[in-house]
Amino acid sequence: MRRIFFDNAATSWPKPESVYRVVEDYLRSNGAPAGRSVYREAGEADRIVSETRKKMARFIGAEDLSRIVFTASGTDALNLALQGTLRPGDHVITSVLEHNSVLRPLQALAQTRDVSVTHVPCSALGYVDPDLIQAEIRPNTKLIALIHASNVLGTIQPIESVGKIAQNHGVLFLIDAAQSVGYLPFDARELSADLIAFPGHKGLLGPLGVGGLYFAPGVEDQVRSVRQGGTGTKSESLDHPASMPEKFEAGNHNVPAIAGLGAGIEFLESLDIETQRTKHREMVDVLLAACREIDGISSYGPDEGLDRLGVISLSMANCDVQEFASLLDASFRIQVRSGLHCAPLAHKAIGTIASGGTVRFSFGHFNTDQDLQILVAALNEIAPLLIKP
Questions:
Q1: Of 27, 111, 208, 366, which has fewest CB within 10 angstroms of its CB?
Q2: Is-contact 120 94, C-beta < 8 A?
Q3: Adjacent-strand bridge partners of 360
Q4: For residues 171 and 140, what is the distance between their CA atoms, to the nearest angstrom?
Q5: What's the CATH fold of domain 17-269?
Q6: 385: pLDDT strictly greater than 80
Q7: pLDDT per position as a tens digit, 314-325
Q8: What is the chain's alpha carbon radius of gyration, rounded to the nearest angstrom?
C-alpha cells in the first residue's frame, strides 16, 4: 500500500531528488568543515554555505546574504530572537495561536528575567485582530511576536498590518514563518519585519537540522548573541566577532543540511508559488466540502481555503484523536498528526484542548488530487466505525 503523507506542517516529505543527492554527495565526497581551513574541500564547504545563504536571501527578499543567520532549527531561531532581544522589565505581545517554540521561551523569560507577556486572543475562525495588538502596546513594550500562519488552523495572519503598527510605535516585530515560507510569496522588506524565523525542513524542502533567522539591517545591534565560540574568523581575539552573520553563528555549520536546503530552494524557484498556493486552496475546499457531508466530523477555522494554508484540523464526535489518526495509518497508510500540535493555547481558543486536540491534515508540494481522493474515501469508510453514540 502506498504511503500518503499529510503531515507536511511537521516536516515535508518526500524531498526533491536533488536534496537527497547533494546531502549524500557532501557526506561521501567532501565532509570538511566550512570556514575553518584552506584545502580544496573546506573551500567547497564554505562555498556551499555562502551560496545557500545567498539563495535564501534572494528567496525571501532580504537585503543581502549577511541578513541570513543559519541556526539548528526554526525553534533555535526563535529562541535566539527572543532570548537575544528581551531584557528584564521588557513587555512582549504575542497571540494565543503561537507554537510552544514561542510560548515556552517567553514563559521561561517571564520566570527568569521578569519579562511580561500578553497573549492576544483570536477570533473563532483563528484570526488575530491587529487593533487588539495595538491596544496592548505599553511604554515598555519591546517586541511583538506573531505566527504568520497557524500550524493548527492554517489561518494566515495580517502580518503586514501588524508590522506597520510595530514600526509606528518603535517596537520590534518578530515573525514565526515556520508554516508560511516556501508556501506563500514572501518579501521581507515589504513586511516591516525586524526578525523572521524559519525552519529549513518544512516548506523549503530541506533536511531536518537547519533553520534560520532574518535580521533587518541594524537590528543585529539590538540582539545579543546567546552562544559564543569558534567562527573561523578573528581567532586571535577572545571577544566573539560582532560582524554579521558570525555574531550569531558560533560553532560548525551543519553543512550537509545547509547543502540540502540550498537544493530545496532551487527546486522551489523552479515552481510557481502562486500555482502551488492555488492548488492547496482547492485541496482545502475539497476536503472541507467532503467533511460537511460526513456526520460527526467537525472542522475548525475558515470554511474555505482562501485565507488559509493547506492545513486543516478535524475531530470526530466521541472519538479519540489518536485512535482516529492510528486507524488512518493502519488501514490506509494515510499519515497525519494528532494531538495538540505544540500549540495548547490555540486548542484552548477553539475548544479542543479537553478532548486532546485535533487530527491535522497538512498538504505539501508533492501531494496530488489522487491522494486527496483516497483520503476522502477513507474518511467516509471509517467515520461510521469511529463515531460512538
A1: 111
A2: yes
A3: 313, 337
A4: 9
A5: Aspartate Aminotransferase; domain 2 (3.40.640)
A6: no
A7: 998 888 999 999
A8: 21
